[in-house]
Design a protein that fits this description.
- The complex is a heterodimer of chains A (354) and B (536).
- Chain A contains eight helices and 16 strands.
- Chain A has helices at residues 19-25, 77-92, 108-115, 152-161, 195-199, 265-269, 296-314, 329-343, and strands spanning 2-6, 9-13, 49-52, 59-60, 71-73, 140-142, 166-169, 176-179, 205-207, 220-225, 234-240, 243-248, 284-287, 290-293, 319-322, 348-349.
- In chain A, the strands form six sheets. Chain A has a five-stranded mixed beta sheet, with helices on both faces.
- In chain A, β7 (166-169) and β8 (176-179) form a beta hairpin.
- Helix content of chain B is 32%, strand content 16%.
- Chain B has 21 helices and 19 strands.
- The chains are: A alpha+beta (354), B alpha/beta (536).
- At the A-B interface, α4, β10, β11, α6 and β13 of A face α3, α11, α13, β7 and β8 of B.
- β13 (284-287) of chain A pairs antiparallel with β9 of chain B.
Chain lengths: 354, 536
C-alpha cells in the first residue's frame, strides 16, 4: 500500500494502481468517457484529468500511476475548466436530440454535460446530423452523429468478442468508427453480439429490438440466466408494464460469473419471442381432429383420467415422459418424480442427445 | 465439462476444438477461446469438416471427414507414443488399461489415418506435437463428436488423449463437452434419464431406490426405462400408449421425422406442455400452456456444472402456468399430492436427495452460482474435476477403440456425407428464435452448404435452389456455395420448419451406449433442379 493525498485527504491504495483506481477505491468520483475497466486503456478523452502537484500538465488519471506522497486535486477550478473545454469540443460533433434518444437519462455524456453546465458549444462547426443512419441490420442502430470517438466499441469488439469488425477511420474532425471498407456490419466480421452497445457511453449505438419500448428509468431489471445455449450467460431482463422490453448486461463478476456482461446475438437480441402473439395461453383439447379451448380443470382432469386408465389397462411401462433441457432443474426434478412415483415407470428422458 | 469456462480464456495453453463450431453454438465460450489464442498466445488446434471461424486463427486446422474422429484421435496418440511425448508418470500413477489401448493405436500411423480422415499425415503430426508439448491442454467438443453411431467411442478417445498426456485435473486442462442447450446439464443432473435418479444414482441400485422410495413414499420400479429414440421405435410397434412431452419438440429434433410422425399417430394419448403450438403439439390430444424462462423462478445448470438462478420477470400470458405448477396439479389429481409454495421449496427437497447439489441453497447461489459437486453448505463448489489426477472411480481407464465407418457410407447413389447442426442466429428447433423478430429477419431460412469445387462441377450457383435427398426423404433449399466445407460433405441446419432437416437423417444407426442418432453423417445426394422445379 502507498499513501497519497487527494483533495486534501490522506488515502491509501495498492502499489501499481492508477490515480483513477486510487480515487475509486476511496470513494472519490472522477468522470470518465473512454475508460472501461474491462478494456485496454486508451487515455484519449482526457475527461479524467486531475492536477498533480509539481507537474506542469494535467494528468489523465486513468493512465497515470499513483505514486507515494503525490498530492492530487480532482476538482480544482482549473480542472473543471479543462473538462468543460473537453465536453464542448465533444459536444461540437454530437447531435443532441435527447428528447427522442434511446439513451436519454442513461447517457454518460448527457450526465457530464448536465453536471458541467454545457448547454452549447463554442466550437460548433455547423452540423446537426451529417452521417446517414443506414446500416441495414435488425439488431443495432449506429448513429455516428452522436459518437464522441471514445473507441470503447472498437476495443470491446476487439478484446471481448474478438470479432475486429470495426475500427477508427480518418483523423481529427473527420474521424469516424467504421467497418473495414465503411460498409454494412452484415458484410463485416460482425457477429451482432452488441458488446459495442453495452460499452457505448452515448446514444450512438442502441438496440433496434428495444427501440421505443421504454426509457431506462421506466424499467425494472431482473437478473436471470439465458434460455439458449449451455454457456449459461446471465443478463438483466428489462421489464416495463409486465413486459420484457430489452436485455442489458450486468458486468459484475458476481452478477455475471460466466460472461461478465458479454453476450451473443441470441442472448442480447433474441428475447421478444416471450411476447410473441402466438404464445399458448389456454389449455387445448383435441376433439374430432380440432383443438378447442378448455379450462385447466377440464384439461387436467382429462389427462389424469386417461393416464390412469392406460396405466391400469396396459401397465406403467406403456407410458413415457419426455422432460426438457429447457425447463428448470426444479421442473426436471418434478417431471422425473412424477414419471417414477406417479406413473410408476422409469421411461423418462429428454433430448440431451439431439 | 471437467473444467471451467474461464480456464479456456486464461489457463489453457493449448485448446483442441473438435466437432464444435464454438463461435456459433457457444458464442461466448468461442470469444474466450479467441481471446486466449490471439492475445495470450495459447495454441489452437481445430478439427472439423467445415472451415469454421476458429479455423482461421488455428495453428493447425484438420478438415477431417465426418465419422473419422476415432481414427484422428488414434493417429494423434500414435504420434505421441512413438515420439515419446506421453506423460509416463501420469499413466503409471493414475490410469489403467494403457497397454491394450497402445496396442490398438499402433497401427494408426498418420499415413494409415490419412485416407480415412482426409487429413494429411503431416498435419496430424503437428497437431499431436502441439497438444502433447503444451503445459496445459484442453479438449473442447460438442455434438460433432457425440452425434455418431460411435459417439461414445469418440468421447472415450478424447479422454484417452487427455490421459495419455496427463491433461486432466489441473486448471486449463480437461475434456470439455460443450452442452448444447441451456439446461441439458441440469436435466441430466436431475434424473431426467431412464437409468438414473438425480446425481446419476442408478434406478437399479437397491440402496438408491430405497432412499427415493422413502423420500417419496411410494414403491418405485427397479428396472431401467426406455431412452427417447427407442420410445419412438416402441410406439411404432404399439408398445407406448401414452406420452407426456414437456417442452420438447421431437417432430423437429428427432431423426427421420416421417418415422416420428407415424409413431406419434400410433400413441393413444399424447400430452404436450409447451409455450408454443410446436410441430409436436399438433399431434397432441391435450396441449397445456407452460411459462417461458422469463416467467418463472428456478435454476439452470450450465455446461461447466454451474447452477444459477432463473428469476421471474413478467407474468405468463393468459392462463399459462409454470411447468412445475402444472405437474404438481396433475400429480395431485392422480392421487399423489404434490404441493410446493415456490421453486425454492422444490430445490430444498431435491438437494436432500442429490449429493452433488446438497450444499447449494438459493441464498448461496446469489454470489455467482455454485459448481457441483457441492456436498455441504460450507463447500465452495468445484471448478474442475479430478483434481491432481484423482478420478472418482480410482484410476482413469483407457479404452482401446478401433475406427468404424459411419452407418451410412457414401455410395454411388448417395455420394455426399450430409451433416446437420446449428447456426449462430437460431436455436434448436427454432420455436423461440424463429419468433425472435430480429434473429428471424436476419436469417429467415436454411441453406445447404456445398463445396465450391463440387458445386462448379454440378453447375450449381450460389443461392440457387437445389434438392438434397437421402434414403429417408428430400428437401429443397438454397445452396450456399463455399470453400469452407470439405469436398464430399454438405451441411445444413435443423431450425426451420419449412425445411425440417430431420426428414433426411436416419434413426437406424444409434450409438449403442448413448443411443444418439448419427446426425453428423447421412449419405445424401444433391440434385440440380430444372427451371420448372425451381419455381414449383
Ligand atoms: S455487434 Fe459485436 S461484433 Fe458487431 S461491431 Fe459490435 S462488438 Fe463488434
Ligand atoms: S460509437 Fe459509442 S463507443 Fe463507439 S466511439 Fe462512438 S461514442 Fe464511443
Ligand atoms: S448469451 Fe449466447 S452464449 Fe450466452 S448463454 Fe445465451 S445463447 Fe449462449
Amino acid at each position: 500500500m502507498i499513501t497519497l493525498t487527494i483533495n486534501g485527504r490522506e488515502v491509501q491504495t495498492p502499489r501499481g494502481s492508477t490515480i483513477l483506481e486510487a480515487c475509486q477505491r476511496n470513494g472519490i468520483s472522477i468522470p470518465t468517457l473512454c475508460y472501461d475497466p474491462d478494456l485496454r486503456l486508451a487515455g484519449s478523452c482526457r475527461m479524467c484529468v486531475v492536477e498533480v502537484k509539481g507537474r506542469p500538465l494535467y494528468a489523465a488519471s486513468c493512465v497515470t500511476p499513483a505514486e507515494s506522497n503525490m498530492i492530487i486535486e480532482t476538482d480544482s477550478e482549473g480542472i473543471v475548466a479543462a473538462r468543460k473545454v473537453i465536453l464542448e469540443l465533444l459536444a461540437a460533433r454530437h447531435h443532441f436530440n435527447c428528447q427522442v434518444c434511446e439513451k436519454n437519462a442513461n447517457c454518460t455524456f448527457q450526465d457530464y454535460c448536465y453536471q458541467y453546465g454545457i448547454k452549447e458549444s463554442r466550437y460548433e462547426y455547423g452540423h446537426g446530423a451529417i452521417y446517414e443512419i443506414t446500416d441495414p441490420n435488425p439488431f443495432l442502430e449506429r448513429d455516428y452523429n452522436k459518437c464522441i470517438m471514445c473507441t470503447r466499441c472498437v476495443r470491446a469488439c476487439e478484446e471481448i468478442t474478438v470479432a475486429r469488425a470495426i475500427n477508427v477511420k480518418n483523423r481529427g474532425h473527420e474521424a469516424k468508427i467504421s467497418t473495414a471498407f465503411d460498409g454494412n456490419l452484415a458484410d463485416s466480421p460482425c457477429v451482432f453480439c452488441g458488446q459495442c452497445v453495452m460499452v457505448c457511453p452515448t446514444g450512438a449505438l442502441t438496440s433496434r429490438v428495444s427501440a421505443g419500448m421504454g426509457r431506462s428509468y421506466e424499467v425494472d431489471k431482473v437478473l436471470t440466466t439465458c434460455t439458449y445455449c449451455g454457456t449459461g450467460c446471465t443478463f438483466e431482463l428489462n421489464v416495463k408494464d409486465d413486459r420484457v422490453v430489452g436485455v442489458t448486461s450486468d458486468r459484475t463478476i458476481v452478477g455475471s460469473p460466466v460472461n461478465k456482461g458479454a453476450l451473443c446475438v441470441k442472448g442480447r437480441f433474441g428475447w421478444d419471442f416471450i411476447h410473441a402473439n402466438d404464445r399458448l395461453t389456454t389449455p387445448l383439447i383435441k376433439e374430432n381432429g380440432e383443438f378447442r379451448e378448455a379450462s385447466w380443470d377440464e384439461a387436467l382432469d382429462l389427462v389424469a383420467q386417461r393416464l390412469g386408465e392406460i396405466k391400469t389397462e396396459h401397465g406403467p411401462d406403456s407410458m413415457a415422459m419426455f422432460t426438457s433441457a429447457r425447463v428448470t432443474n426444479e421442473e426436471n426434478y418434478l417431471a422425473q418424480k412424477f414419471t417414477r412415483a406417479v406413473l410408476g415407470t422409469n421411461n423418462v428422458d429428454h433430448c440431451a442427445r439431439l | 465439462m471437467t473444467n471451467s469456462i474461464g480456464e479456456l480464456e486464461k489457463d489453457a495453453k493449448c485448446i483442441f476444438v473438435i466437432g464444435s463450431n464454438t463461435t456459433e453454438n457457444h458464442p461466448v465460450i468461442g470469444m474466450k477461446i479467441k481471446k486466449n489464442v490471439l492475445y495470450n498466445g495459447a495454441k489452437l488446434i481445430v478439427a472439423d469438416p467445415r472451415r469454421i471461424d476458429l479455423a482461421s486463427i488455428a495453428d493447425v486446422y484438420m478438415p477431417h471427414l465426418p465419422g473419422s474422429d476415432v481414427a484422428l484421435f488414434n493417429a494423434m496418440m500414435n504420434v505421441i507414443i512413438s515420439e515419446g511425448l506421453a506423460d509416463e508418470n501420469f499413466i503409471a500413477e493414475h490410469t489403467e488399461g494403457y497397454e491394450a489401448m497402445a496396442e490398438v493405436v499402433k497401427k494408426y500411423t498418420p499415413e494409415y489415418a490419412e485416407p480415412i480422415t482426409g487429413v494429411p499425415a503431416e498435419k496430424i503430426r503437428q497437431a499431436a506435437r502441439i497438444y502433447a508439448e503444451s503445459d496445459a491442454a484442453a479438449i473442447c467438443y460438442a455434438m460433432g463428436i457425440t452425434q455418431h453411431r460411435n459417439g461414445t467411442d469418440n468421447v472415450k478417445s478424447a479422454c484417452n488423449l487427455a490421459m495419455l498426456t496427463g491433461n486432466i485435473g489441473r486448471p486449463g486442462t480437461g475434456v470439455d463437452p460443450l452442452r448444447g442447450q441451456n439446461n441439458v446439464q441440469g436435466a441430466c443432473d436431475m434424473g431426467g434419464l431412464p437409468t438414473v435418479f438425480t446425481a446419476y444414482q442408478a434406478v437399479t441400485n437397491d440402496a438408491a431406490r430405497e432412499k427415493f422410495e422413502k423420500a417419496w413414499g411410494v414403491p418405485l420400479p427397479g428396472h431401467a426405462g426406455t431412452v427417447l429414440t427407442e420410445v419412438i421405435n416402441k410406439a411404432h410397434h404399439g408398445d407406448v400408449r401414452a406420452l407426456y412431452v414437456l417442452g420438447e419438440n421431437p417432430m423437429m429434433s428427432d431423426p427421420d421425422l416421417e418415422h416420428v410422425e407415424e409413431a406419434l399417430e400410433k400413441i393413444d394419448f399424447v400430452v404436450v406442455q409447451d409455450i408454443f403450438m410446436s410441430e409436436t403439439a399438433r399431434f397432441a390430444d391435450v396441449v397445456l400452456p407452460g411459462a417461458s424462462f422469463a416467467e418463472k423462478d428456478g435454476t439452470f445448470s450450465n455446461t461447466e456444472r454451474r447452477v444459477q438462478r432463473v428469476r421471474k420477470a413478467v407474468s405468463p400470458p393468459g392462463q399459462a402456468r409454470s411447468d412445475w405448477e402444472i405437474i404438481c396439479d396433475l400429480a395431485t389429481r392422480m392421487g399423489y399430492p404434490m404441493s410446493y409454495a415456490n421453486s425454492e421449496e422444490i430445490f430444498e427437497e431435491l438437494r436432500t436427495l442429490t449429493p452433488s447439489y446438497a450444499g447449494m441453497t438459493y441464498q448461496r447461489m446469489e454470489g455467482g452460482g455454485l459448481q457441483w459437486p457441492c456436498p455441504t453448505e460450507v463447500h465452495p463448489g468445484t471448478p474442475f474435476l479430478h483434481k491432481d489426477g484423482n478420478f472418482s472411480r480410482g484410476l482413469g481407464a483407457f479404452t482401446a477403440i478401433d475406427h468404424i465407418d459411419p452407418g451410412e457410407m457414401p455410395d454411388q447413389e448417395y455420394p455426399i456425407r450430409l451433416s446437420t447442426g446449428r447456426s449462430l442466429y437460431h436455436y434448436h428447433t427454432g420455436t423461440m428464435t424463429r419468433r425472435a423478430s430480429a434473429l428471424n429477419e436476419h436469417v429467415p431460412a436454411a441453406e445447404l452448404e456445398i463445396n465450391a469445387g463440387q458445386a462448379a462441377e454440378m453447375g450449381i450457383k450460389d443461392g440457387e435452389l437445389v434438392k438434397i435427398s437421402t434414403r429417408r426423404g428430400s428437401l429443397k433449399m438454397k445452396a450456399k456455395v463455399t470453400d469452407k466445407i470439405a469436398r464430399g460433405v454438405a451441411f445444413t441446419t435443423f431450425h426451420f420448419t419449412e425445411t425440417p432437416a430431420n426428414v433426411l437423417t436416419s434413426a437406424e444407426f444409434l450409438d449403442p451406449v448413448a443411443k444418439i442418432p448419427e446426425y453428423k453423417v447421412s449419405a445424401a445426394r444433391i440434385d440440380k433442379l430444372s427451371a420448372e422445379e425451381m419455381t414449383g
